[in-house]
User: Which sequence fits this backbone?
């Protein structure tokens, strides 16, 4: 994705956005950020895992879309293969841009090169240069997505604090060939079960327990990815 | 009144006297083992003078400190942020040989010995042209490239290479204070000890203080520094002076800035030899701790000040003159025993050598843990346990002195009496002389370091001996090493991974900045 630019009626008054998914930018993307509020939905399509950001070392929650780096098995023929479209994809082509170092002040921005932009679809500004209800809706969705991101960070921080995450290599059998996905972290179910009642209740009340179980249930979806991989390999061969 | 009044021989209370790094490290180790907050645990108290300010000198450590921090339950992120800590992968010795451009690394990674020990091949010139440290591992090249020893994604205390830290000792002491009192159940008493009272039998009975009355314990740990208030003064354990071996007797210490705010932070301690001794240069986050260790029998204090200033001018120019150094007399040696009656000494009260190989914190930490592990369950065990403790600690000090002396006595510097005197046979301990006699004809072996209590081992000796071109004659034993082709291949492989290390590692300063911003994960 190219660098987002601030959205203004002067520059973008005539611009329209058509509905759909910008799959071009997802090609070759093995990991997709997801927020805690969508684990149960995204987790019905793909595994939800924890990885470390290579720049900061901090944990992030992601949907696993491929079995090796630069592989995305969830895009096929320009189409998203899942039942649920994660929030980060749905927010395309809009972005919030920080205008101060502390992320306190943000403005609405747009990816100027998104294929979703053009002369068809929904208008962003009306004749008077006021933002349309469509854009208002998208802006509010983006703001709440950012809030969900903050809650997700609090979620992972709490898991780290409780020492619940564990490094795991996921080993798969792909048509007789062993394949390993490394660098992934999971919640350790044994450690979770040993938490005291008070902590479990706290996790439940904050909505974290449900997310943890959605994460557990999603893990089996790795076999779905393996099937897509095998089908793809056979199709190509 | 405390339970210690019951005369059943159980040890229920221990009092640590003195609150520097040694005192707090000791209190942490004791509390971690003796569990003061558990029923039946031993009460651990520390009495600290409210009047003695702590001095924030920059200090080096060795990798064992990582295990200790982890063992004590201190987070690496918190430690790095609060102690101005930086990473240390090596000691870089500059000018220790006559050739002024000569330098070598004593790195923390052990020489790679798998699949093949390259040392004999390197000695026979069959493992390439690189220096010894560069031949047997990647870390020397990483230091020269200014790379950090770990990635931001690696968990706390894990690294690509083995590492220790440089830290602000005053801040480290403060961190240990908080950890000991808030997490480990150590009780802090702020008072000045005025008098030590003995029992008729000669044990320590109690201490009188200026503002907290009398303090009594079943066991005392003397961490009072050079004054050795309990072990030296009250129990009159004599001090064994070793200035006959280690000739430096003073230090000039000064904190200076980096040349630029964002100058690279060296990932090693710099130890630069000068005519009358050597200069330490330790990079913390925003300043450097430097100092000149010298022999006042060989140069005057004024000459020492001038030589230190010249050293600092090389990096700071005229600015170097703004900083005035503090002169510290050094008492080199150790006590005749380290545990007498119901009192053990940890820290400078136990012994001291010049900080050439970062032995200060190392000895505090090693002996504090030893004391905690072997803490007497009962009064009657004290004579036996103290005998063992004394034997072990004495052995450790003697070996430390051997190793420090090695750096001086195999130098070929001939520019001053100081360096020539350091090679005089009568200044070299017999154990070291014997080792060197063997190593002239065959490389050192693990069997030369067969005690589990060695502080410095084969690997440390290899880096220093062969960093300083020690002439082991291989002609007579060359037949023992028949894989020169494999050796060369192995050396090439190591050189290759050294060249690639930079692709995955940040610069030292950049990693420190990211740890301050994002922290390291515990897993």
Assistant:
């Amino acid at each position: 994705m190219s660098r987002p630019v601030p959205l203004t009626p002067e520059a973008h008054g005539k611009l329209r956005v058509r509905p759909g998914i910008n799959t071009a930018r997802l090609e070759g993307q093995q990991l997709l950020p997801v927020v805690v509020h969508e684990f149960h939905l995204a987790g019905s399509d793909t595994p939800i895992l924890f990885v470390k950001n290579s720049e900061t070392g901090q944990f992030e929650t992601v949907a696993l879309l491929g079995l090796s780096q630069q592989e995305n098995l969830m895009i096929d023929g320009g189409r998203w293969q899942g039942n649920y479209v994660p929030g980060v994809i749905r927010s395309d082509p809009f972005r919030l841009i920080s205008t101060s170092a502390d992320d306190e002040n943000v403005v609405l921005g747009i990816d100027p090169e998104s294929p979703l932009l053009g002369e068809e679809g929904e208008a962003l500004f009306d004749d008077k240069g006021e933002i349309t209800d469509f854009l208002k809706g998208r802006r509010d969705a983006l703001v709440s997505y950012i809030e969900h991101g903050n809650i997700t960070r609090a979620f992972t921080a709490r898991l780290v604090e409780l020492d619940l995450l564990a490094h795991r290599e996921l080993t798969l059998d792909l048509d007789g060939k062993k394949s390993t996905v490394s660098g992934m972290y999971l919640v350790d179910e044994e450690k979770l079960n040993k938490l005291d009642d008070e902590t479990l209740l706290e996790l439940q009340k904050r909505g974290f327990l449900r997310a943890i179980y959605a994460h557990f249930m999603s893990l089996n979806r790795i076999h779905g990815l393996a099937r897509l991989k095998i089908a793809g390999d056979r199709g190509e061969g | 009144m405390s339970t210690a009044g019951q005369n059943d021989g159980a040890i229920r209370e221990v009092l640590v006297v003195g609150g520097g790094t040694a005192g707090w490290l000791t209190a942490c180790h004791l509390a971690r083992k003796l569990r003061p907050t558990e029923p039946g645990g031993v009460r651990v108290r520390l009495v600290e003078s409210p009047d003695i300010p702590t001095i924030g000198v920059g200090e080096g450590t060795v990798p064992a400190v990582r295990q200790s921090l982890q063992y004590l339950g201190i987070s690496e992120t918190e430690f790095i942020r609060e102690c101005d800590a930086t990473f240390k992968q090596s000691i870089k010795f500059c000018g220790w040989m006559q050739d002024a451009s000569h330098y070598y690394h004593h790195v923390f990674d052990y020489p790679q010995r798998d699949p093949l020990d390259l040392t004999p091949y390197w000695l026979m010139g069959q493992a390439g042209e690189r220096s010894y440290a560069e031949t047997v591992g990647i870390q020397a090249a990483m230091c020269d490239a200014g790379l950090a020893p770990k990635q931001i994604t690696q968990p706390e205390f894990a690294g690509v290479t083995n590492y220790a830290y440089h830290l602000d000792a005053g801040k480290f002491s403060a961190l240990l204070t908080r950890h000991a009192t808030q997490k480990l159940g150590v009780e802090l008493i702020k008072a000045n000890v005025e008098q030590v009272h003995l029992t008729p039998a000669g044990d320590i009975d109690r201490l009188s203080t200026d503002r907290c009355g009398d303090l009594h314990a079943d066991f005392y740990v003397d961490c009072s520094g050079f004054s050795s208030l309990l072990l030296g003064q009250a129990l009159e354990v004599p001090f064994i002076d070793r200035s006959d071996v280690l000739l430096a007797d003073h230090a000039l210490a000064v904190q200076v800035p980096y040349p630029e705010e964002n100058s690279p932070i060296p990932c090693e301690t710099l130890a630069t030899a000068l005519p009358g001794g050597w200069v330490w240069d330790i990079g913390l986050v925003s300043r450097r701790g430097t100092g000149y260790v010298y022999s006042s029998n060989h140069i005057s204090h004024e000459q020492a000040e001038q030589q230190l200033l010249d050293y600092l001018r090389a990096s700071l120019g005229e600015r170097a003159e703004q900083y005035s150094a503090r002169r510290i007399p050094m008492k080199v040696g150790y006590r005749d025993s380290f545990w007498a009656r119901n009192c053990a000494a940890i820290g400078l009260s136990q012994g001291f050598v010049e900080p050439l190989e970062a032995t200060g914190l190392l000895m505090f930490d090693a002996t504090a843990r030893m004391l905690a592990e072997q803490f007497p369950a009962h009064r009657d065990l004290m004579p036996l346990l103290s005998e063992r403790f004394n034997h072990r600690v004495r052995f450790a000090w003697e070996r430390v002195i051997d190793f420090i002396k090695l750096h001086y006595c195999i130098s070929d510097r001939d520019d001053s009496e100081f360096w020539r005197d350091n090679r005089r046979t009568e200044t070299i301990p017999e154990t070291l002389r014997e080792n060197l006699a063997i190593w002239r004809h065959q490389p050192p072996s693990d069997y030369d370091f067969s005690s589990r209590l060695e502080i410095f081992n084969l690997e440390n000796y290899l880096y220093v001996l062969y960093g300083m071109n020690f002439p082991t004659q291989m002609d007579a034993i060359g037949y023992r090493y028949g894989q020169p082709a494999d050796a060369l291949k192995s050396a090439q492989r190591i050189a290759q991974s050294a060249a690639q290390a930079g692709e995955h590692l940040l610069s030292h300063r950049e990693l420190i900045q990211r740890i301050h911003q994002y922290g390291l994960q515990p897993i």
